[in-house]
Amino acid sequence: MALLELKKVKKVYRQGKIEVPALRGIDLTVEQGEFTTIFGPSGSGKTTLLNMIGCLDTPTEGEIKLNGNKVSKLSQKQLAMVRRYNIGFIFQAYNLIPVLTAYENVEFAIRLIDHSKELQIKEKVLKILEEVGLKGLENRRPNELSGGEQQRVAVARALVKEPKIVLADEPTANLDSKTAADVVKIMIKMNKELGTTFIFSTHDPAVMKYANRYINLKDGMISTDERRG
Ligand SMILES: Nc1ncnc2c1ncn2[C@@H]1O[C@H](COP(=O)(O)OP(=O)(O)O)[C@@H](O)[C@H]1O
Ligand SMILES: [Mg+2]
């Protein structure tokens, strides 16, 4: 059974009387452990597609299955539970909680689903922060960290709950090319070590090259889908 399956997924946004077709029939299967990049020009539907996969929104038509479970027609409350237990998110603007330290941002994410003892949570959080290269910076708040460091916190936050799938929407768009490559390499490392499935959108060829699957979106449709390595 595939981890993720989309069949004829369409999304139409409505703005008053105007209909904007953002996805126009997406068929896609993603297997556990893949590191997939979705690329295409601005407006091609990358964010919309990730939002559908991430259960942040539901399609207008078509079916989405995660782990064999149909998620395309769930209520908002059910979607929130699917997200909480199965999906990690990394955003372009990092989206960390500004008043919390790096440690607390990661701890907050895991406390929602893991009710282990204080000490075990602490071990998990410190370990993942070390894995992403933030040892020694645990007590800094987001405004005391560089963009690359903030995005590493976001990667740790997405991974600490060991989700089936991590979705990253242009995660390196605000980073310089060297920092962007470093952040992507950390995601690759976590993908190899934990077997976590990654799907990330980008229009930066320099970060795309690390993926093992490339999906090109054009006008809400998949125009090419290639695997490598
Ligand atoms: N909430 C929305 N309401 C109306 N139109 C939207 C909304 N979100 C996205 N769109 C439109 O859907 C299309 C795809 O957008 P998006 O998924 O954000 O593309 P990308 O992430 O590739 O830039 C664009 O034409 C965009 O203007
Ligand atoms: Mg986008």
Structural features, described:
This protein has 229 residues and is an alpha/beta fold. The protein has one domain (4-227): P-loop containing nucleotide triphosphate hydrolases (Rossmann fold), CATH 3.40.50. 34% of the residues lie in helices and 29% in strands. The chain contains seven helices and ten strands. The protein has helices at residues 46-53, 76-86, 102-111, 118-131, 147-159, 177-194, 205-208, and strands spanning 4-15, 18-30, 35-39, 61-66, 69-70, 87-90, 165-169, 197-202, 213-218, 221-227. Strands 6-7-8-3-9-10 form a six-stranded mixed sheet, sandwiched between helices. Strand 7, helix 6 (177-194) and strand 8 form a beta-alpha-beta unit. Helix 4 (118-131) packs across helix 5 and helix 5 (147-159) runs parallel beside helix 6 (177-194). The longest helix is centred in the C-terminal third of the chain and has 18 residues, at 177-194. The radius of gyration is 17 Å and the shape is globular. The protein starts with a strand and ends with a strand. The model has no long low-confidence stretch (mean pLDDT 94). Adenosine-5'-diphosphate is lined by residues 13, 15, 20, 22, 40, 42-48.
